[in-house]
């Protein structure tokens, strides 16, 4: 089995940098109230090798450091680290192997998004910000058990049907989000919880007014190609 010492200096330098990024981004999960105790995880894939950096399993957030982050290959095998990797490692690895444009994956159990997942419902697209960020509803994926590639398979299958969404609500489990890097995936996780909460509140007031597919497409195109700095 390969170890980090088998890789060149460019790879080892990127591992060091990504460990720092991934450790810091776990603080954002706590800041945005997306996790409790030890639940949830962030990973980022390397650009220089088929490796990823992921949170260790069962370690409290206040104890996470760059050195505690675990380096794995894209089959989920540990390449470097003194801790056991997240129980979701096989699913993160599956997503990276089957979605080559994805370089960041996040899993949380944030309250409102997980509530939609527990009822097996898509979050309907009733906000312009959902058209912007998700290109439609936030979809629910199938029920899958933890500990193998099965959740990753469900995420990939669902995102094939909803290619503009960076988020999937795995039924009875919680949200998984993807992005061009781990920060983008964390942003998607925060946005998922925000719209889950707002759409839940809207349901208490009455029926949600859907946005047309035509307008969703316009919103998503503007957000993708015009909004922000370029």
Automatic annotation (TrEMBL):
The record's InterPro entries line, in alphabetical order, gives: Aldolase_class_II_sugar_metab (IPR050197), Aldolase_II/adducin_N (IPR001303), Aldolase_II/adducin_N_sf (IPR036409)
Q: Which reaction does it catalyse?
A: L-ribulose 5-phosphate = D-xylulose 5-phosphate
What cofactor is this protein dependent on? Zn(2+)
Residues annotated as coiled-coil are: none
Q: Which domain of life is it from?
A: Bacteria
Please verify whether the record's keywords include Metal-binding. yes
Q: What is its EC number?
A: 5.1.3.4
What stretches pass through the bilayer? none
Task: Report domain Class II aldolase/adducin N-terminal positions.
Answer: 20-200
Could you tell me the keywords of this UniProt record?
Metal-binding, Zinc
Catalytic class of the enzyme: isomerase
- Annotated family: Belongs to the aldolase class II family. AraD/FucA subfamily.
The protein depicted here goes by the name L-ribulose-5-phosphate 4-epimerase
Which species?
A: Bifidobacterium hominis
């Amino acid at each position: 089995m390969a170890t980090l010492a088998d890789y060149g200096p460019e790879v080892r330098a990127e591992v060091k940098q990504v460990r720092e990024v991934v450790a810091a981004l776990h603080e954002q999960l706590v800041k945005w109230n997306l996790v409790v105790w030890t639940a949830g995880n962030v990973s980022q894939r390397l650009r220089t090798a088929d490796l990823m950096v992921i949170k260790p399993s069962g370690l409290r957030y206040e104890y996470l450091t760059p050195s505690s982050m675990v380096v794995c290959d894209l089959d989920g095998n540990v390449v470097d680290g003194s801790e056991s990797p997240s129980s979701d490692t096989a699913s993160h690895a599956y997503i990276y192997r089957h979605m080559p444009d994805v370089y960041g994956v996040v899993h949380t159990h944030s309250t409102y998004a997980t509530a939609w997942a527990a009822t097996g419902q898509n979050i309907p697209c009733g906000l312009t910000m959902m058209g912007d960020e998700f290109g439609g509803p936030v979809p629910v994926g199938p029920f899958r058990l933890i500990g193998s590639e099965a959740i990753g398979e469900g995420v990939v299958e669902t995102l094939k049907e909803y290619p503009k969404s960076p988020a999937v609500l795995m039924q009875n489990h919680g949200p998984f989000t993807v992005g061009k890097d781990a920060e983008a995936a964390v942003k998607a996780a925060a946005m998922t919880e925000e719209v889950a909460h707002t759409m839940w509140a809207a349901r208490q007031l009455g029926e949600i007014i859907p946005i047309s597919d035509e307008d969703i497409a316009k919103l998503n195109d503007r957000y993708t190609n015009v909004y922000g700095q370029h």
